[in-house]
Amino acid sequence: MNNRQGARLERALATLALIIIGLISLANVVVRYFTNASFAFTEEISVFLLVILTFAGASVAMRSNRHIRIAFLERLFPRLRTPLILLQWLASMVVLGLVLWYGGHFALEEYQWESESPGLGLPNWWYVIWLPLLALLMLVRLTQMTIDRLRGRLEDEP
């Protein structure tokens, strides 16, 4: 599979997040240099965008088979390749499923409690909802990658 084919949404999200982080950080440095004051919102927005960048980047890596995994056992026991791939899929599904479940509960609680962010006073669920959404997208990309590996459309080693 061409690495550019999959995960276009995540690529766009990661790119947008990185551009915005760079722009607001640059603007903050310039303003601080000329005025000895800084924008109050930059840290809060940057942390939020870094979470999006991390999950979107992990999703892209997942889809293109460039995530970190231990392939030692696959090389050591080539006859067990299929069960090992399925075991990797299952273990990853459990972890991402937990992130999805607990992230969803956390986002719902933030919404119900009407919590606000400390810096800007925005609803916290605006920030937190991205955690389960991007975890769900990673589950989809993980499954796509696993199917492609099992069908031989993706190299085992990136």
* β-strand amount: under 5%
Mean pLDDT: 91
Give the tally of β-strands: 0
What does the radius of gyration come to?
A: 19 Å
**Helix count, per DSSP?**
6
Identify low-pLDDT runs.
none
Q: From the helix content, strand content and strand pairing, which structural class follows?
A: mainly alpha
H/E element order = HHHHHH
Main location: membrane
Family: Belongs to the TRAP transporter small permease family.
Transmembrane segments: 12-33, 45-63, 84-104, 124-143
Function: Part of the tripartite ATP-independent periplasmic (TRAP) transport system.
Lay out the secondary structure.
Blueprint (H helix, E strand, L loop, with lengths): L7 H28 L6 H22 L8 H5 L4 H33 L11 H4 L1 H21 L8
Subunit structure: The complex comprises the extracytoplasmic solute receptor protein and the two transmembrane proteins.
Keywords: Cell inner membrane, Cell membrane, Membrane, Transmembrane, Transmembrane helix, Transport
GO cellular component, one term: plasma membrane
